[in-house]
Write a structure and sequence with these properties.
The complex is a heterodimer of chains A (203) and B (647).
Chain A (H helix, E strand, L loop, with lengths): L3 E7 L13 H28 L16 H12 L1 H12 L3 H29 L7 H33 L6 H32 L1
Chain B lengths: L16 H11 L4 H7 L3 H30 L9 H36 L7 H23 L24 H29 L12 H32 L13 H35 L6 H14 L15 H13 L1 H17 L6 H23 L2 H7 L3 H31 L5 H27 L16 H31 L37 H4 L3 E6 L7 E5 L6 E6 L6 H16 L5 H17 L3 H8 L10
Antiparallel strand pairs in B: 2-3
Classes of the chains: A mainly alpha (203), B mainly alpha (647).
Bound molecules: protoporphyrin IX containing FE (HEM) and copper (II) ion (CU).
Chain lengths: 203, 647
């Protein structure tokens, strides 16, 4: 350590809490979303790859999946973007009470969606072990479902933290990123819902 | 007592002892076992990671030696067919998933924060979690192996051989689950690297100034994000087929065996570059120190890295030429496969130009670089040969392929890696490795490598298939195999020489000082080994060769906290200072989380109960991980400055 050092930058005045892409967690959240999105993309690719092995689709002897309930489910999914959006808004306002409220509402939404996902599985009207067709349908739902369950745990955990725990300033950007991830969760369900329940009826 | 804060324009006083002590208190880990378990320091984790991956290299090497012993003469009976199957599978799986990829990422996790001039990786607890999960996953594979449940289906575990119909027992499940472990670990590491590089670079280190190794790790991390999900998904299909009766790979029920090959190689080819690109980054970053000039053609190098990354995703089908794909597709993939030689060639010419126009000094790292260039070109040339379908159909699944990919992997990755060991060992330990022993190390490796693998080209031409445990004397393959096995002994002696060198150096090697090679990247701006906080004052970067361009005075930053852990965040492109973010404390929860996930993955092979049990454990670990401790409250309550800009 012999080199002389001279101070040319002073960062004392910089903020210590920042939102969005200025902070680290935003990047980490999208990093995981990209890797998970890639997995979903590959599962969709698998769907179309396996589809070539069947002359008709759904394969002979299998009923069309039920489209009605899952479509209602999709609507609920989309509707949950509203509490996610409100959560982000209130987090940016540093409004702890509002953020807590929206976290609780989003937690309830997450639980409702877990229920919706169960109905989605029934609506497939095929089991995973009856053919490759059933297998990929289950995996598409199941993979997205596991993301949903994990995110539900995170949202509920954060809600508990906001109610009971020491809320630190950095938890506001964190709550914001939960909102961002929620968008990913909802948007990534769109193509799967379409491919699984709607597509086979119209093409 | 803290000294009065420094201000702009001021020269840092010579006596910074008190400030160092304070930083040590804030950034240091606890002493003893507890500190060892809970640390989240990237250097501590990185060192462990590198050591663990190197131990896997030694294990894989022992397996290689056993195979070579068995093949050294015809009809040898050292190892039976069943064990041989397990051993080559263990060797391939270990070398690819537990050694090559992790050790490159580990080097990144150790050196990238130092090279970009920050104090730690972006998510230190996630980083610790990644290491523990790696350790658990790797140990799991070896425990299974010793219980005679080691995988025996080859490192790419083709179905139907690995499927439920032909792979009874748990051997293939062991493989599939090892993959799940290692892919999660790889993705975690990739996210660390990406965020650290984008957000934590030193002030002034704009994108066009980051060291090429950092570029290489960044590009590699992106490749990991897109490649690893493919093999993770495929191995999940495989596990589901085997454990709960799905039919992804069962043609009788509409499944498809080629689906496996597509998914595997969509990962598997990029994998080669995930191993190779960091190695090229190591070379480009070491070269300046030994040629006394910046690397030739920095922009070309970076563009080459990026274009290799893109192209690498468009060639996977060349592994499937023998499966009867349509001719047009075959031609397409031949074209893309040969095309990737172009950016790779650009890199090679840039290195040659650097050496040519510099003043090369042939210290041990430089020898390994020269060896790398030589061996990699051979491997590259045979690569272009097998990209052509008619040729490939002749040598497919023969020892020609084994020769080819070892030239690429050993020549292209292990040689740069050993060079890197010699080059950075002083930074990590504070002591130099012996140059004299190093020369032995290099020449034994170089000679042994060619002796082992060059004859395999001929064995391939003579028709010797890979993955056979023995052969008849009448084939005439005996002498070349013997030569190859002797070569393996030479390699083994070279690796032992290296270990001796390490021991000798740790016991009393020459003390290194901060910058023994007079190199130009930032890791050499701090002490060897670096303190827990890396830099007392974060550096400000003036040019591409940070330490050569700064003149005789280093510019530094002040104003990050000395009272709590804090990192400086900068803008992603220009690296202008943007915020100071508080940084997590050490924690035992990453280990707990890794254990929970370990329980989940391992018991999943035996019972679906794994899901609720492992899930519950993970939930507990997650709560412990994220819940603020009193220490967090202590260090974060005070005077946070909140900025809503950009929200
Ligand atoms: C350093 C000395 C090494 C020796 C002597 C060696 C030797 C061998 C031999 C003899 C085989 C062929 C076995 C067979 O097909 O019957 C083999 C396969 C293989 N090796 Fe190595 N190897 C070495 C290092 C490495 C390294 C560093 C890597 C990767 C980074 C590697 C990756 C592989 C892979 C992926 C296979 C294919 C396994 C399979 O067929 O499933 N090897 N090795
Ligand atoms: Cu390839």
């Amino acid at each position: 350590m012999t080199k002389r050092e001279r101070v040319t930058v002073d960062v004392t005045e910089l903020p210590t809490i920042v939102f969005g892409s200025r902070g680290l967690l935003w990047w980490g959240t999208w990093g995981f979303a990209v890797a998970e999105g890639m997995t979903l993309f590959l599962s969709i690719a698998t769907y179309f790859y396996l589809r070539r092995n069947f002359q008709t689709y759904p394969p002979l002897g299998y009923p069309q999946p039920d489209w009605f309930a899952p479509t209602i489910g999709m609507a609920i999914f989309l509707a949950t973007c509203i509490p996610a959006y409100m959560l982000k808004k209130s987090a940016v306002r540093l409004d702890k009470d509002a953020a807590t409220r929206w976290l609780v509402i989003l937690s309830v939404c997450a639980l409702v969606l877990c229920g919706v996902r169960t109905i989605d599985f029934y609506a497939l009207r095929v089991l995973w072990m009856t053919s490759a067709y059933g297998s990929i349908q289950w995996v598409l739902l199941g993979f997205h479902g596991s993301l949903l369950v994990i995110e539900a745990a995170e949202v509920i955990g954060t809600a508990v933290l906001f109610i009971k725990g020491p809320v630190l300033p950095r938890h506001f950007p964190d709550a914001c990123d939960i909102g961002n991830y929620w968008y990913f969760l909802v948007l990534s369900w769109l193509p799967i819902w379409f491919i699984v329940y709607i597509g086979p009826r119209i093409w | 007592m803290t000294a009065p804060p420094l201000v702009i324009g001021e020269t840092v006083p010579v006596d910074v002892g008190a400030e160092r002590e304070q930083m040590e208190r804030v950034w240091g880990s606890k002493r003893g076992l507890w500190g060892w378990i809970t640390t989240t320091n990237h250097k501590e984790i990185g060192k462990r990671y590198i050591t663990t991956a190197f131990i896997f290299f030694l294990l894989g090497g022992i397996e290689a030696a056993m195979m070579r012993a068995q093949l050294s003469r015809p009809e040898n009976s050292l190892i039976g067919p069943d064990k041989y199957n397990q051993i080559f599978t263990m060797h391939g799986t270990t070398m690819m998933f537990l050694f090559a990829v992790p050790i490159m990422e580990a080097l990144g996790l150790y050196f990238v924060p130092l090279m970009v001039g920050t104090r730690n990786v972006a998510f230190p607890r996630l980083n610790a979690f990644g290491y523990w999960l790696f350790l658990i996953g790797g140990s799991f594979l070896y425990v299974q192996f010793f219980l005679n449940t080691g995988p025996d289906v080859g490192w790419f575990a083709y179905v139907p051989l690995s499927g439920p119909a032909f792979g009874p027992g748990k051997r293939a499940d062991t493989w599939a689950q090892t993959i799940t472990f290692t892919e999660i670990v790889a993705i975690v590491g990739a996210i660390e690297l990406i965020v650290t590089v984008f957000k934590q670079r030193a002030v002034g280190m704009s994108l066009n100034r980051i060291p090429i190794f950092v570029w290489a790790m960044l590009v590699t991390a992106f490749m990991i994000m897109f490649a690893m999900p493919a093999v993770a998904t495929a191995s999940m299909y495989l596990a589901l087929d085997r454990l709960v009766g799905t039919h992804f790979f069962n043609p009788a029920e509409g499944g498809d065996v080629l689906l496996w090959q597509h998914m595997f190689w969509f990962f598997g080819h990029p994998e080669v570059y995930i191993i190779f690109l960091p190695a090229t980054g190591l070379v480009s970053t070491m070269l300046p120190a030994f040629t006394r000039r910046p690397v030739f053609g920095y922009p070309a190098m970076v563009l080459a890295l990026i274009s290799v990354a893109f192209m690498a995703f468009g060639l996977w089908v060349h592994h499937m030429f023998a499966t009867g794909i349509p001719q047009l597709a075959a031609s397409f993939f031949t074209a893309t496969s040969t095309m990737i030689a172009i950016p790779t060639g650009v890199q090679i010419f840039c290195w040659l130009a650097t050496i040519w126009s510099g003043r090369p000094r042939f210290a041990t790292p430089m020898l390994f670089i020269m060896g790398f260039i030589f061996l990699f070109v051979i491997g590259g040339v045979t690569g272009v040969m097998i990209a052509s379908v008619p040729f490939d159909l002749q040598v497919h699944d023969t020892f020609f392929i084994v020769a080819h990919f070892h030239y690429v992997l050993v020549g292209g990755a292990v040689f740069p890696l050993f060079g890197a060991f010699y080059y950075w060992f002083p930074k990590v330990t504070g002591r130099m490795l012996s140059e004299r022993i190093g020369k032995w190390n290099f020449w034994l490796f170089f000679i042994g490598m060619n002796m082992t693998f060059f004859p395999m080209h001929w064995l391939g031409f003579y028709g010797m298939p890979r993955r056979v445990y023995t052969y008849l004397a009448s084939t005439g393959w005996g002498p070349l195999n013997l030569l190859s096995s002797i070569g393996a002994l030479v390699i083994a002696s070279s690796v032992i020489t290296f270990l001796v060198n390490v021991v000798v150096s740790l016991r009393g090697g020459a003390v290194a000082g901060d910058n023994p090679w007079d190199a130009d990247t930032l890791e050499w701006a701090t002490t060897s080994p670096p303190p827990p906080y890396n830099f007392l004052h974060l550096p400000v970067v003036q040019g591409r060769s940070a330490l050569w361009d700064e003149g005789d005075e280093r510019q530094v930053t002040v104003g990050t906290s000395t009272e709590r852990r804090e990192v400086l965040l900068t803008t992603p492109l220009d690296a202008q200072p943007d915020s100071r973010e508080s940084h997590p404390h050490d924690s035992v929860w990453p280990l707990a989380m890794a254990l929970a996930i370990g329980v989940l993955f391992i018991t999943a092979i035996f019972t679906p109960l794994a899901l609720p049990i492992g899930g519950a454990l993970a939930l507990i670990a997650f709560a412990g991980w994220a819940w603020p401790t009193s220490q967090d409250v202590e260090s974060e309550k005070s005077d946070e400055k909140i900025s809503l800009e950009g929200a």
